[in-house]
Protein backbone atom coordinates (compact mmCIF):
# COMPACT_ATOMS: atom_id res chain seq x y z
CA UNK A 1 0.00 0.00 0.00
CA UNK A 2 1.42 3.40 -0.96
CA UNK A 3 0.41 6.91 -1.96
CA UNK A 4 2.12 9.93 -3.49
CA UNK A 5 2.72 12.76 -1.06
CA UNK A 6 0.89 15.21 -3.35
CA UNK A 7 -2.28 13.08 -3.05
CA UNK A 8 -2.17 13.61 0.72
CA UNK A 9 -1.52 17.34 0.45
CA UNK A 10 -4.76 18.02 -1.44
CA UNK A 11 -6.76 16.76 1.58
CA UNK A 12 -4.96 18.72 4.30
CA UNK A 13 -5.07 22.33 5.63
CA UNK A 14 -1.45 22.90 4.63
CA UNK A 15 0.11 26.14 5.89
CA UNK A 16 3.47 25.45 4.26
CA UNK A 17 5.19 22.63 2.36
CA UNK A 18 8.63 22.04 1.05
CA UNK A 19 9.93 18.96 -0.70
CA UNK A 20 8.92 16.73 -3.59
CA UNK A 21 5.20 15.98 -3.96
CA UNK A 22 6.00 12.88 -6.04
CA UNK A 23 7.65 11.15 -3.06
CA UNK A 24 5.96 7.80 -2.37
CA UNK A 25 4.74 7.20 1.18
CA UNK A 26 4.73 3.51 2.13
CA UNK A 27 3.61 3.82 5.77
CA UNK A 28 2.09 6.40 8.13
CA UNK A 29 3.22 6.47 11.78
CA UNK A 30 2.88 8.71 14.83
CA UNK A 31 5.23 6.60 17.02
CA UNK A 32 8.83 7.23 15.99
CA UNK A 33 9.80 3.74 17.19
CA UNK A 34 7.49 2.19 14.58
CA UNK A 35 8.89 4.19 11.66
CA UNK A 36 10.23 2.19 8.70
CA UNK A 37 11.94 3.42 5.52
CA UNK A 38 9.47 5.26 3.30
CA UNK A 39 7.17 6.35 6.15
CA UNK A 40 5.43 9.63 6.82
CA UNK A 41 5.89 10.58 10.49
CA UNK A 42 3.13 12.63 12.16
CA UNK A 43 4.27 14.64 15.19
CA UNK A 44 1.44 14.58 17.75
CA UNK A 45 1.35 16.56 20.98
CA UNK A 46 0.26 14.26 23.82
CA UNK A 47 -0.22 14.66 27.56
CA UNK A 48 3.09 12.91 28.31
CA UNK A 49 5.21 13.40 25.18
CA UNK A 50 5.50 15.72 22.19
CA UNK A 51 6.08 14.02 18.84
CA UNK A 52 7.99 17.09 17.63
CA UNK A 53 10.79 16.00 19.97
CA UNK A 54 11.12 12.75 17.99
CA UNK A 55 11.13 14.06 14.41
CA UNK A 56 14.89 13.67 14.02
CA UNK A 57 14.70 10.10 15.37
CA UNK A 58 11.96 9.32 12.87
CA UNK A 59 14.14 10.61 10.03
CA UNK A 60 17.05 8.48 11.25
CA UNK A 61 14.77 5.43 11.04
CA UNK A 62 13.92 6.16 7.41
CA UNK A 63 10.99 8.58 7.43
CA UNK A 64 10.87 10.37 4.06
CA UNK A 65 8.37 12.99 5.17
CA UNK A 66 7.29 14.69 8.41
CA UNK A 67 3.97 16.33 9.23
CA UNK A 68 4.02 18.75 12.14
CA UNK A 69 2.88 22.01 13.70
CA UNK A 70 6.40 23.48 13.70
CA UNK A 71 9.57 22.53 11.79
CA UNK A 72 12.07 22.76 14.71
CA UNK A 73 15.04 23.10 12.42
CA UNK A 74 13.98 20.53 9.85
CA UNK A 75 13.92 23.23 7.16
CA UNK A 76 17.72 22.93 7.18
CA UNK A 77 17.47 19.30 6.05
CA UNK A 78 16.72 17.95 2.58
CA UNK A 79 13.34 16.49 3.49
CA UNK A 80 9.61 16.71 2.79
CA UNK A 81 7.93 18.72 5.54
CA UNK A 82 4.23 19.55 5.83
CA UNK A 83 3.23 22.32 8.23
CA UNK A 84 -0.38 22.17 9.54
CA UNK A 85 -2.22 24.01 12.36
CA UNK A 86 -3.19 20.87 14.33
CA UNK A 87 -1.77 17.40 13.67
CA UNK A 88 -4.52 15.68 15.68
CA UNK A 89 -7.16 17.06 13.32
CA UNK A 90 -5.47 15.67 10.18
CA UNK A 91 -5.29 12.03 11.32
CA UNK A 92 -8.65 11.19 9.71
CA UNK A 93 -7.93 12.68 6.26
CA UNK A 94 -4.39 11.25 6.24
CA UNK A 95 -5.70 7.80 7.21
CA UNK A 96 -8.50 7.89 4.65
CA UNK A 97 -6.12 8.98 1.88
CA UNK A 98 -3.34 6.51 2.71
CA UNK A 99 -5.63 3.50 3.25
CA UNK A 100 -7.93 4.48 0.35
CA UNK A 101 -11.00 5.15 2.52
CA UNK A 102 -11.69 1.56 3.65
CA UNK A 103 -14.77 2.57 5.66
CA UNK A 104 -16.58 3.43 2.42
CA UNK A 105 -16.20 -0.20 1.32
CA UNK A 106 -17.65 -1.67 4.53
CA UNK A 107 -21.07 -1.60 6.17
CA UNK A 108 -20.16 -0.18 9.57
CA UNK A 109 -22.31 -0.83 12.64
CA UNK A 110 -21.74 1.08 15.88
CA UNK A 111 -22.59 -0.07 19.42
CA UNK A 112 -23.01 2.89 21.77
CA UNK A 113 -23.78 2.98 25.50
CA UNK A 114 -22.30 2.85 29.00
CA UNK A 115 -22.75 -0.84 29.78
CA UNK A 116 -23.16 -3.88 27.55
CA UNK A 117 -21.25 -2.58 24.53
CA UNK A 118 -18.76 -5.44 24.40
CA UNK A 119 -21.24 -8.30 24.80
CA UNK A 120 -23.72 -6.66 22.40
CA UNK A 121 -20.93 -6.27 19.84
CA UNK A 122 -19.94 -9.94 20.24
CA UNK A 123 -23.55 -11.05 19.80
CA UNK A 124 -23.87 -8.90 16.70
CA UNK A 125 -20.58 -10.17 15.29
CA UNK A 126 -21.64 -13.79 15.86
CA UNK A 127 -24.99 -13.08 14.17
CA UNK A 128 -23.32 -11.49 11.14
CA UNK A 129 -20.81 -14.31 10.93
CA UNK A 130 -23.71 -16.77 10.80
CA UNK A 131 -25.31 -14.77 7.99
CA UNK A 132 -22.25 -13.76 5.97
CA UNK A 133 -19.56 -16.33 6.95
CA UNK A 134 -17.19 -13.77 8.42
CA UNK A 135 -17.38 -10.25 9.80
CA UNK A 136 -15.16 -7.67 11.46
CA UNK A 137 -15.13 -6.48 15.07
CA UNK A 138 -13.40 -3.49 16.65
CA UNK A 139 -13.76 -3.75 20.41
CA UNK A 140 -12.49 -3.51 23.95
CA UNK A 141 -11.01 -7.02 24.18
CA UNK A 142 -9.63 -7.61 20.70
CA UNK A 143 -10.14 -6.79 17.03
CA UNK A 144 -11.39 -9.44 14.60
CA UNK A 145 -10.29 -8.64 11.06
CA UNK A 146 -12.12 -11.42 9.23
CA UNK A 147 -9.96 -14.50 9.77
CA UNK A 148 -7.30 -12.66 11.78
CA UNK A 149 -7.40 -11.37 15.36
CA UNK A 150 -5.23 -8.87 17.20
CA UNK A 151 -5.33 -7.54 20.79
CA UNK A 152 -7.06 -4.24 21.49
CA UNK A 153 -5.88 -1.13 23.31
CA UNK A 154 -8.58 1.52 23.65
CA UNK A 155 -12.27 0.64 23.33
CA UNK A 156 -12.24 2.57 20.05
CA UNK A 157 -8.76 2.90 18.48
CA UNK A 158 -7.29 6.25 17.42
CA UNK A 159 -8.37 7.62 14.05
CA UNK A 160 -5.26 6.44 12.18
CA UNK A 161 -5.23 2.96 13.76
CA UNK A 162 -8.92 2.62 13.02
CA UNK A 163 -8.36 3.28 9.31
CA UNK A 164 -5.63 0.62 9.31
CA UNK A 165 -7.93 -1.94 10.94
CA UNK A 166 -10.70 -1.22 8.45
CA UNK A 167 -8.22 -1.56 5.59
CA UNK A 168 -7.20 -4.99 6.93
CA UNK A 169 -10.87 -6.00 6.93
CA UNK A 170 -11.28 -4.90 3.32
CA UNK A 171 -8.24 -6.99 2.43
CA UNK A 172 -9.91 -9.96 4.17
CA UNK A 173 -13.06 -9.36 2.08
CA UNK A 174 -15.17 -8.46 5.11
CA UNK A 175 -18.49 -6.78 4.26
CA UNK A 176 -19.82 -5.91 7.75
CA UNK A 177 -17.80 -4.48 10.63
CA UNK A 178 -19.10 -4.04 14.20
CA UNK A 179 -17.51 -1.32 16.30
CA UNK A 180 -17.76 -0.45 19.97
CA UNK A 181 -17.97 3.34 19.90
CA UNK A 182 -16.92 4.96 23.17
CA UNK A 183 -17.83 8.46 24.32
CA UNK A 184 -14.11 9.34 24.27
CA UNK A 185 -13.94 8.28 20.61
CA UNK A 186 -16.92 10.46 19.75
CA UNK A 187 -15.61 13.48 21.67
CA UNK A 188 -12.10 13.15 20.22
CA UNK A 189 -13.25 12.65 16.62
CA UNK A 190 -11.87 9.13 16.22
CA UNK A 191 -14.85 8.01 14.10
CA UNK A 192 -15.09 11.29 12.21
CA UNK A 193 -15.59 10.80 8.49
CA UNK A 194 -17.06 7.30 8.86
CA UNK A 195 -20.58 6.55 7.63
CA UNK A 196 -22.49 3.98 9.71
CA UNK A 197 -25.20 1.73 8.28
CA UNK A 198 -26.64 1.17 11.75
CA UNK A 199 -26.31 1.92 15.43
CA UNK A 200 -27.26 0.03 18.60
CA UNK A 201 -28.00 1.92 21.82
CA UNK A 202 -27.59 -0.15 25.00
CA UNK A 203 -28.05 2.33 27.89
CA UNK A 204 -26.60 5.44 29.49
CA UNK A 205 -25.62 5.64 33.15
CA UNK A 206 -23.10 7.75 35.06
CA UNK A 207 -19.53 7.15 33.89
CA UNK A 208 -16.49 9.06 32.61
CA UNK A 209 -17.60 12.29 34.27
CA UNK A 210 -13.91 13.01 34.90
CA UNK A 211 -13.67 13.46 31.12
CA UNK A 212 -17.09 14.84 30.17
CA UNK A 213 -17.57 17.21 33.14
CA UNK A 214 -21.33 16.62 33.39
CA UNK A 215 -23.91 13.94 32.70
CA UNK A 216 -25.68 16.25 30.23
CA UNK A 217 -22.49 16.56 28.19
CA UNK A 218 -21.95 12.78 28.35
CA UNK A 219 -25.51 12.22 27.09
CA UNK A 220 -25.06 14.81 24.34
CA UNK A 221 -21.87 13.15 23.12
CA UNK A 222 -23.46 9.68 23.08
CA UNK A 223 -26.58 10.90 21.27
CA UNK A 224 -24.36 12.68 18.73
CA UNK A 225 -23.61 9.32 17.13
CA UNK A 226 -27.31 8.77 16.41
CA UNK A 227 -27.80 12.34 15.17
CA UNK A 228 -25.24 11.64 12.46
CA UNK A 229 -26.97 8.49 11.16
CA UNK A 230 -28.60 8.91 7.77
CA UNK A 231 -32.35 8.28 7.20
CA UNK A 232 -31.37 5.03 5.41
CA UNK A 233 -29.45 3.74 8.44
CA UNK A 234 -31.01 1.71 11.27
CA UNK A 235 -31.10 2.84 14.91
CA UNK A 236 -31.94 0.05 17.37
CA UNK A 237 -32.74 1.51 20.79
CA UNK A 238 -33.24 0.09 24.29
CA UNK A 239 -36.61 1.64 25.09
CA UNK A 240 -36.44 0.45 28.72
CA UNK A 241 -33.54 2.81 29.39
CA UNK A 242 -34.72 6.20 30.73
CA UNK A 243 -32.78 7.94 27.93
CA UNK A 244 -34.00 5.71 25.12
CA UNK A 245 -36.67 8.20 24.01
CA UNK A 246 -34.09 11.00 24.02
CA UNK A 247 -32.00 8.95 21.58
CA UNK A 248 -35.11 8.27 19.47
CA UNK A 249 -35.81 11.99 19.16
CA UNK A 250 -32.17 12.67 18.26
CA UNK A 251 -31.98 10.45 15.19
CA UNK A 252 -33.34 10.62 11.63
CA UNK A 253 -32.55 6.91 11.09
CA UNK A 254 -35.08 4.08 10.82
CA UNK A 255 -35.96 3.24 14.42
CA UNK A 256 -36.52 -0.15 16.04
CA UNK A 257 -36.97 -0.57 19.80
CA UNK A 258 -36.17 -3.47 22.11
CA UNK A 259 -36.65 -4.29 25.78
CA UNK A 260 -38.95 -6.06 28.24
CA UNK A 261 -41.60 -3.33 28.38
CA UNK A 262 -44.88 -3.84 26.47
CA UNK A 263 -44.12 -1.03 23.99
CA UNK A 264 -40.88 -2.58 22.73
CA UNK A 265 -40.99 -3.93 19.17
CA UNK A 266 -38.53 -6.70 20.05
CA UNK A 267 -39.22 -8.40 23.39
CA UNK A 268 -38.26 -11.45 25.42
CA UNK A 269 -40.98 -13.69 26.83
CA UNK A 270 -41.00 -16.98 28.79
CA UNK A 271 -37.57 -16.28 30.29
CA UNK A 272 -35.65 -19.00 32.14
CA UNK A 273 -32.18 -18.46 33.61
CA UNK A 274 -29.57 -20.77 35.12
CA UNK A 275 -25.91 -20.41 36.02
CA UNK A 276 -24.97 -21.63 32.56
CA UNK A 277 -27.53 -20.18 30.16
CA UNK A 278 -30.59 -18.06 29.44
CA UNK A 279 -33.63 -19.30 27.53
CA UNK A 280 -36.33 -17.00 26.17
CA UNK A 281 -38.74 -16.50 23.31
CA UNK A 282 -37.78 -13.61 21.05
CA UNK A 283 -40.93 -11.80 19.89
CA UNK A 284 -40.28 -9.60 16.85
CA UNK A 285 -42.21 -8.01 13.95
CA UNK A 286 -40.68 -10.84 11.86
CA UNK A 287 -42.07 -13.62 14.07
CA UNK A 288 -41.22 -15.56 17.26
CA UNK A 289 -38.41 -17.99 18.03
CA UNK A 290 -37.01 -19.63 21.16
CA UNK A 291 -33.39 -18.69 21.85
CA UNK A 292 -30.89 -20.39 24.20
CA UNK A 293 -27.91 -18.19 25.07
CA UNK A 294 -24.69 -19.50 26.60
CA UNK A 295 -24.56 -16.35 28.75
CA UNK A 296 -26.72 -16.08 31.89
CA UNK A 297 -28.40 -12.97 33.22
CA UNK A 298 -31.21 -10.61 32.25
CA UNK A 299 -28.70 -7.98 31.10
CA UNK A 300 -27.34 -10.47 28.55
CA UNK A 301 -30.84 -11.00 27.21
CA UNK A 302 -30.98 -7.23 26.70
CA UNK A 303 -27.65 -7.40 24.85
CA UNK A 304 -28.91 -10.24 22.65
CA UNK A 305 -32.20 -8.47 21.88
CA UNK A 306 -30.37 -5.36 20.71
CA UNK A 307 -28.06 -7.36 18.45
CA UNK A 308 -31.04 -9.31 17.13
CA UNK A 309 -32.86 -6.06 16.33
CA UNK A 310 -29.97 -4.65 14.33
CA UNK A 311 -29.50 -7.93 12.48
CA UNK A 312 -33.20 -8.01 11.55
CA UNK A 313 -33.06 -4.35 10.50
CA UNK A 314 -30.26 -5.35 8.09
CA UNK A 315 -32.57 -8.01 6.58
CA UNK A 316 -30.94 -11.04 8.21
CA UNK A 317 -33.56 -13.80 8.48
CA UNK A 318 -34.91 -14.43 11.99
CA UNK A 319 -33.78 -18.10 12.20
CA UNK A 320 -30.28 -17.21 10.96
CA UNK A 321 -30.00 -14.28 13.38
CA UNK A 322 -31.08 -16.40 16.36
CA UNK A 323 -28.65 -19.20 15.47
CA UNK A 324 -25.91 -16.57 15.41
CA UNK A 325 -26.80 -15.46 18.94
CA UNK A 326 -26.82 -19.07 20.14
CA UNK A 327 -23.40 -19.75 18.59
CA UNK A 328 -21.64 -17.26 20.87
CA UNK A 329 -19.96 -19.42 23.56
CA UNK A 330 -19.21 -16.52 25.88
CA UNK A 331 -17.26 -13.27 26.17
CA UNK A 332 -13.96 -13.05 28.10
CA UNK A 333 -14.46 -11.41 31.49
CA UNK A 334 -18.21 -10.97 31.08
CA UNK A 335 -20.00 -13.07 33.73
CA UNK A 336 -17.23 -15.62 33.16
CA UNK A 337 -17.50 -18.63 35.47
CA UNK A 338 -14.16 -19.75 36.95
CA UNK A 339 -14.17 -23.54 37.24
CA UNK A 340 -13.08 -25.26 40.43
CA UNK A 341 -15.74 -24.25 42.94
CA UNK A 342 -17.11 -27.61 44.07
CA UNK A 343 -20.26 -26.48 45.86
CA UNK A 344 -20.21 -22.73 45.16
CA UNK A 345 -19.67 -20.53 42.09
CA UNK A 346 -17.04 -17.91 41.26
CA UNK A 347 -17.76 -15.38 38.51
CA UNK A 348 -15.52 -12.66 37.03
CA UNK A 349 -17.15 -9.64 35.39
CA UNK A 350 -16.08 -6.28 33.98
CA UNK A 351 -18.84 -4.37 35.86
CA UNK A 352 -17.16 -1.12 36.89
CA UNK A 353 -20.06 1.35 37.00
CA UNK A 354 -22.90 1.63 39.51
CA UNK A 355 -25.42 0.33 36.96
CA UNK A 356 -23.10 -2.47 35.85
CA UNK A 357 -22.51 -3.59 39.44
CA UNK A 358 -26.24 -3.51 40.17
CA UNK A 359 -26.99 -5.64 37.10
CA UNK A 360 -24.39 -8.26 37.93
CA UNK A 361 -25.40 -8.47 41.61
CA UNK A 362 -29.10 -8.77 40.76
CA UNK A 363 -28.24 -11.63 38.42
CA UNK A 364 -26.09 -13.27 41.10
CA UNK A 365 -28.89 -12.86 43.62
CA UNK A 366 -31.34 -14.58 41.24
CA UNK A 367 -28.98 -17.49 40.56
CA UNK A 368 -27.25 -18.08 43.92
CA UNK A 369 -28.79 -20.67 46.23
CA UNK A 370 -27.30 -19.01 49.29
CA UNK A 371 -25.15 -15.91 49.80
CA UNK A 372 -23.72 -13.40 47.29
CA UNK A 373 -20.15 -12.31 48.10
CA UNK A 374 -18.66 -9.50 46.01
CA UNK A 375 -15.07 -8.30 45.55
CA UNK A 376 -14.74 -4.88 43.90
CA UNK A 377 -13.01 -1.51 43.89
CA UNK A 378 -13.06 1.67 41.81
CA UNK A 379 -10.51 3.09 39.38
CA UNK A 380 -8.35 6.03 40.36
CA UNK A 381 -8.28 9.31 38.39
CA UNK A 382 -11.83 8.58 37.25
CA UNK A 383 -15.34 9.70 38.23
CA UNK A 384 -15.31 9.85 42.04
CA UNK A 385 -19.08 10.31 42.31
CA UNK A 386 -19.81 6.68 41.53
CA UNK A 387 -17.71 5.32 44.43
CA UNK A 388 -20.23 5.78 47.30
CA UNK A 389 -23.05 4.79 44.90
CA UNK A 390 -21.31 1.48 44.21
CA UNK A 391 -20.85 1.05 47.97
CA UNK A 392 -24.61 1.50 48.52
CA UNK A 393 -25.42 -1.00 45.76
CA UNK A 394 -23.02 -3.62 47.14
CA UNK A 395 -24.43 -3.16 50.65
CA UNK A 396 -27.99 -3.59 49.38
CA UNK A 397 -27.53 -6.50 46.98
CA UNK A 398 -24.72 -8.61 48.46
CA UNK A 399 -24.46 -10.48 51.73
CA UNK A 400 -20.81 -9.56 52.18
CA UNK A 401 -18.41 -7.28 50.30
CA UNK A 402 -14.64 -7.14 50.17
CA UNK A 403 -13.54 -3.69 49.01
CA UNK A 404 -10.18 -3.75 47.26
CA UNK A 405 -8.02 -1.96 44.68
CA UNK A 406 -8.98 -1.80 41.02
CA UNK A 407 -6.60 0.39 38.97
CA UNK A 408 -5.75 3.09 41.54
CA UNK A 409 -3.46 4.94 39.10
CA UNK A 410 -2.11 8.10 40.79
CA UNK A 411 -4.55 7.98 43.73
CA UNK A 412 -4.06 6.40 47.15
CA UNK A 413 -5.95 3.04 47.13
CA UNK A 414 -6.99 3.58 50.76
CA UNK A 415 -8.64 6.91 49.90
CA UNK A 416 -10.60 5.30 47.05
CA UNK A 417 -11.73 2.48 49.36
CA UNK A 418 -12.76 5.02 51.99
CA UNK A 419 -15.05 6.77 49.50
CA UNK A 420 -16.68 3.41 48.67
CA UNK A 421 -17.09 2.74 52.42
CA UNK A 422 -18.96 6.07 52.72
CA UNK A 423 -21.72 4.45 50.65
CA UNK A 424 -21.95 1.47 53.03
CA UNK A 425 -22.29 3.80 56.03
CA UNK A 426 -25.39 5.36 54.49
CA UNK A 427 -27.24 2.02 54.41
CA UNK A 428 -28.82 -0.29 56.98
CA UNK A 429 -26.04 -2.84 56.39
CA UNK A 430 -22.98 -0.76 57.30
CA UNK A 431 -20.95 -3.63 58.78
CA UNK A 432 -21.13 -6.28 56.05
CA UNK A 433 -17.81 -5.48 54.43
CA UNK A 434 -14.05 -5.63 54.82
CA UNK A 435 -11.34 -3.54 53.17
CA UNK A 436 -8.48 -5.64 51.77
CA UNK A 437 -6.42 -3.40 49.46
CA UNK A 438 -4.26 -6.19 48.05
CA UNK A 439 -6.49 -7.52 45.25
CA UNK A 440 -4.90 -10.97 45.21
CA UNK A 441 -5.47 -11.34 48.94
CA UNK A 442 -9.03 -10.00 48.62
CA UNK A 443 -9.92 -12.64 46.01
CA UNK A 444 -8.30 -15.38 48.10
CA UNK A 445 -10.27 -14.34 51.19
CA UNK A 446 -13.56 -14.28 49.24
CA UNK A 447 -12.94 -17.78 47.85
CA UNK A 448 -12.05 -19.14 51.29
CA UNK A 449 -15.09 -17.43 52.85
CA UNK A 450 -17.56 -19.00 50.38
CA UNK A 451 -19.77 -21.87 51.46
CA UNK A 452 -22.26 -24.26 49.81
CA UNK A 453 -24.65 -22.50 47.43
CA UNK A 454 -22.77 -19.18 47.56
CA UNK A 455 -21.75 -17.12 44.55
CA UNK A 456 -18.55 -15.05 44.60
CA UNK A 457 -18.62 -12.12 42.16
CA UNK A 458 -15.25 -10.53 41.33
CA UNK A 459 -16.16 -7.27 39.62
CA UNK A 460 -14.40 -4.41 37.87
CA UNK A 461 -11.59 -5.76 35.71
CA UNK A 462 -13.06 -8.64 33.73
CA UNK A 463 -10.78 -9.46 30.80
CA UNK A 464 -8.02 -7.04 31.87
CA UNK A 465 -4.60 -8.55 32.59
CA UNK A 466 -2.96 -5.65 34.42
CA UNK A 467 -3.24 -3.39 37.43
CA UNK A 468 -2.16 0.26 37.21
CA UNK A 469 -0.53 1.93 40.22
CA UNK A 470 1.03 5.37 40.57
CA UNK A 471 4.56 4.19 39.86
CA UNK A 472 4.08 0.94 37.94
CA UNK A 473 1.80 -1.32 35.93
CA UNK A 474 1.83 -4.99 36.93
CA UNK A 475 0.43 -8.16 35.40
CA UNK A 476 -2.82 -9.18 37.08
CA UNK A 477 -5.68 -11.39 35.91
CA UNK A 478 -8.75 -11.87 38.15
CA UNK A 479 -9.56 -15.18 36.45
CA UNK A 480 -6.09 -16.65 37.03
CA UNK A 481 -6.00 -15.36 40.61
CA UNK A 482 -9.42 -16.87 41.38
CA UNK A 483 -8.46 -20.16 39.76
CA UNK A 484 -5.27 -20.34 41.83
CA UNK A 485 -7.26 -19.56 45.01
CA UNK A 486 -9.72 -22.34 44.22
CA UNK A 487 -6.91 -24.86 43.67
CA UNK A 488 -5.26 -23.78 46.90
CA UNK A 489 -8.53 -24.22 48.79
CA UNK A 490 -9.31 -27.59 47.19
CA UNK A 491 -5.85 -28.99 47.97
CA UNK A 492 -5.44 -27.24 51.32
Short description:
This protein is α/β, with parallel strands linked by helices and 492 residues long. 34% of the residues lie in helices and 23% in strands. The protein has three domains: 3-98, 3-Layer(aba) Sandwich (Udp-n-acetylmuramoylalanyl-d-glutamate--2,6- Diaminopimelate Ligase, Chain: A, domain 1), CATH 3.40.1390.10; 102-326, 3-Layer(aba) Sandwich (UDP-N-acetylmuramoyl-L-alanine:D-glutamate ligase), CATH 3.40.1190; 336-490, Protein-Tyrosine Phosphatase, Chain A.
Features of the shown structure:
Udp-n-acetylmuramoylalanyl-d-glutamate--2,6- Diaminopimelate Ligase, Chain: A, domain 1; single chain; alpha/beta; Protein-Tyrosine Phosphatase, Chain A; UDP-N-acetylmuramoyl-L-alanine:D-glutamate ligase; eight-stranded mixed β-sheet; 16 helices; 492 residues
Explain what you see:
- The chain contains 16 helices and 26 strands.
- The model has no long low-confidence stretch (mean pLDDT 93).
- The strands form 6 sheets. An 8-stranded mixed beta sheet has the order 11-10-9-12-8-13-14-15, sandwiched between helices. Strands 19-20-24-21-22-23 form a 6-stranded mixed beta sheet, sandwiched between helices. A 5-stranded mixed beta sheet has the order 2-7-6-5-4.
- The protein folds into 3 domains: 3-98, MurE/MurF, N-terminal domain (Udp-n-acetylmuramoylalanyl-d-glutamate--2,6- Diaminopimelate Ligase, Chain: A, domain 1), CATH 3.40.1390.10; 102-326, UDP-N-acetylmuramoyl-L-alanine:D-glutamate ligase (3-Layer(aba) Sandwich), CATH 3.40.1190.10; 336-490, Protein-Tyrosine Phosphatase, Chain A, CATH 3.90.190.
- Helix content is 34%, strand content 23%.
- The protein has 492 residues and is of the alpha/beta class.
- The termini are far apart.
Amino acid sequence: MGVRLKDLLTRLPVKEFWGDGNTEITAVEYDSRAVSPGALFIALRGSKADGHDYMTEAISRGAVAVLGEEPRGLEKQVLNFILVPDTQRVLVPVGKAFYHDPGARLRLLGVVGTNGKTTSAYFLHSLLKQAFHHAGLVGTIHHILGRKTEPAGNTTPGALDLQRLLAEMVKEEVKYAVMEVSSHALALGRVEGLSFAGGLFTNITQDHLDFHRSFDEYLRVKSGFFKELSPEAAAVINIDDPHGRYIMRATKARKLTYGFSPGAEIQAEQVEMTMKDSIFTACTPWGKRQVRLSLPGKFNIYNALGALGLGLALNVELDTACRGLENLPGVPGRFQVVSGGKDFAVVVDYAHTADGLENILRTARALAQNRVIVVFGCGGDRDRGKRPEMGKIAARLSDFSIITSDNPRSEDPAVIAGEIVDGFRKTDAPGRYRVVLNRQQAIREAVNFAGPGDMVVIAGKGHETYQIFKDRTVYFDDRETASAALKERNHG
